[in-house]
Structures are given as structure tokens and as C-alpha cells.
């Protein structure tokens, strides 16, 4: 388990590219036969990737979280961004096609990942502390709350699928979903915004091999950027904007944890006021 300690807006002006990447960019999530996780002290979120190989792959217990098993005091949201998979929770098998989302509540002892066919599953994990238990719920692609946002004229036409949220699958802290940009659109979440009540993490995927996403972070008047490749994740502190533009259309898993679960609780900043 890699540790990433919390940062404040005052740190941003003194960071060079290497430090920005080491603080906020998470790479190498999907390694065949491994579960790789990063613990960020921003709202004590754990994000990671599970890439099962020929054998089933259990979710480990890490000494850093001081628990008997991973979900003893936590909950987790799982989105499959690879080939079809199964996730078994305390003996119950959940079939997860590409794009499915599984919420697993506090108290589930055993979580095991496996491929469901000849393809290679890649399961993105986002976990937050939980004070009570909610039922495990599988949501298939298209079964969430779909919101159509943006406009082709501003290159940000996108379909946002909310899975875990206050009016959908119940959780203690996690809000989670998937956004797909329409062909010809490259921008996500512009005008940019912050929400001091919760942190957010992005996993960019469906990024063509020869394409990149330019992710904007920092305070609106002190922005920086990261160049992000396919299946790389961004840790976005509550004080930071989070927006991006790609050299081609792409998708991303967004997930939040913190003070509240209201998706629309955000503080927007006109692009004309950003620096």
C-alpha cells in the first residue's frame, strides 16, 4: 500500500512537474495477478486496481489500515473497466460485465476478483471509511441515473452515469459513477469547480494509446496541469479544481468521499477567472 500524504493550496506554487505527479498522479494500477492500492490522507480514501490472472485474486488486508480484514471499517465501490469479471463477496458471486459497478458495504470479510472468460478484467477500486453497513448492490451498465450534460459546440457533450449516490445505491460516504465523452468532445467538467466538503478521484480510461488527457488541478487562480495516460488516476483534494481536456474522446470513473453526498454541491469558477 503506497501512502500519499495530504497537501494544501500553499504547496502548489513550489511544486515542479515531478512533485506534482508524485503527489497527485497514480500509475501502474493494473498489473496482471496483483491488487495495487494507494492510501491518500485526503479523507483517508484508498484507491486501486485489481487485475486477476489465471487464479482468483483476493483483496488483501493491509497493516496500514489496522483492521482484521479490509472492509472491517470501510466500504468500497468497484467499477470494471476491463473484460467481464466476477467479484465474490463472502461466497456470493457477482457477474460484472464491462462498465458494471459493485458497491460492497462495511463488514464483508472476503472479496475475491476473477476473470469471467478469456479476456483480462481490470477492476477499479475506491474505498472510504464507513460508520455503518449498507447492502452489497450490483448495478449493470445503463442501470444507473443517466444525465446528459454539455454541448457539442463547446466540445463537452457527455453522458454521466451515477451509480452510488444519495438517490441511487446507498453508501456511507462514497459517491461514484462513470462519464463517457461523445465523439468529437474532449472537455470534462468545464467550467471547473471545487467542493470543499469532499475529495474526488478520477480514473481516466478508454484513452487511445497515442492520446493523452491534460488534467487541470490547483486553486482556480493558481492552476497547474498533469499529462495523463490511459488507466491512470488523479487524486483531487477538496480545495482543487478538477477538469481536463483530451487529445481524443475518453471516459473516466469519478468517485468522491467526505462531508456530504450531494452531487450538485459544488462551487463553480468561470473560465475567465481562472489563471
Q: Order of SSEs, N→C?
A: EHEEEEEEEEEEEEEEEEEEEEEEE
End-to-end Cα distance, whole Å, is: 35 Å
The neighbouring-strand order within the major sheet is 1-3-4-11-6-9-12
For the record, what is the CATH homologous superfamily label? Jelly Rolls
- How many strands in all? 24
Catalogue the unreliable spans.
none
**Portion in strands:** 35-45%
- The count of helical stretches stands at 1
Chain-averaged pLDDT: 93
Quickly count the domains: 1
Largest sheet: 7 strands, mixed
Q: How many whole angstroms does the radius of gyration measure?
A: 18 Å
Helix content: under 10%
Name the shape in a single word: globular
Structural class: mainly beta
Based on the coordinates given, report the CATH architecture. Sandwich
Write down the oligomeric state.
single chain
By CATH reckoning, the class would read Mainly Beta
Looking at CATH, which topology would you report?
Jelly Rolls
Cofactor: Zn(2+)
Keywords: Isomerase, Metal-binding, Zinc
Family: Belongs to the KduI family.
Binding site for Zn(2+): 193, 195, 200, 242
Amino acid at each position: 500500500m503506497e501512502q500519499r500524504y495530504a497537501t494544501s493550496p500553499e504547496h502548489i506554487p513550489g511544486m515542479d512537474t515531478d512533485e506534482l505527479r508524485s503527489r497527485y498522479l497514480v500509475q501502474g494500477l493494473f498489473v496482471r495477478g496483483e491488487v495495487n492500492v494507494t492510501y491518500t490522507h485526503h479523507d483517508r480514501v484508498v484507491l486501486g486496481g485489481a487485475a486477476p490472472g489465471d487464479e482468483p485474486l483476493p483483496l488483501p488486508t493491509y497493516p496500514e489500515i489496522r483492521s482484521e480484514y479490509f472492509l472491517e471499517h470501510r466500504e468500497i465501490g468497484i467499477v470494471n473497466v476491463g473484460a467481464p469479471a466476477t467479484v465474490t463477496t463472502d461466497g456470493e458471486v457477482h457477474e460484472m460485465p464491462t462498465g458494471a459497478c459493485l458497491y460492497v458495504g462495511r463488514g464483508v470479510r472476503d472479496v475475491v476478483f476473477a476473470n469471467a472468460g478469456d479476456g483480462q478484467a481490470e477492476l477499479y477500486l475506491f474505498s472510504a471509511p464507513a460508520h455503518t453497513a449498507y447492502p452489497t448492490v450490483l448495478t449493470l451498465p445503463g442501470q444507473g441515473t443517466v444525465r446528459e450534460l454539455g454541448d457539442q459546440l463547446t466540445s463537452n457533450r457527455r453522458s454521466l452515469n451515477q451509480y452510488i449516490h444519495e438517490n441511487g445505491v446507498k453508501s456511507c460516504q462514497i459517491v461514484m459513477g462513470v462519464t463517457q465523452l461523445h465523439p468529437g468532445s474532449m472537455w470534462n467538467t468545464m467550467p471547473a469547480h471545487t467542493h470543499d466538503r469532499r475529495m474526488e478521484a478520477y480514473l481516466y480510461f478508454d484513452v487511445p494509446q497515442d492520446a493523452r488527457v491534460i488534467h487541470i488541478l490547483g486553486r482556480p487562480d493558481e492552476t497547474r496541469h498533469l499529462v495523463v495516460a490511459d488507466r491512470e488516476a488523479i487524486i483531487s483534494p477538496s480545495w482543487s479544481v478538477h477538469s481536463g481536456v483530451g487529445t481524443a474522446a475518453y471516459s473516466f470513473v469519478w468517485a468522491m468521499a467526505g462531508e456530504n453526498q450531494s452531487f450538485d454541491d459544488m462551487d463553480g469558477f468561470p473560465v475567465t477567472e481562472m489563471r
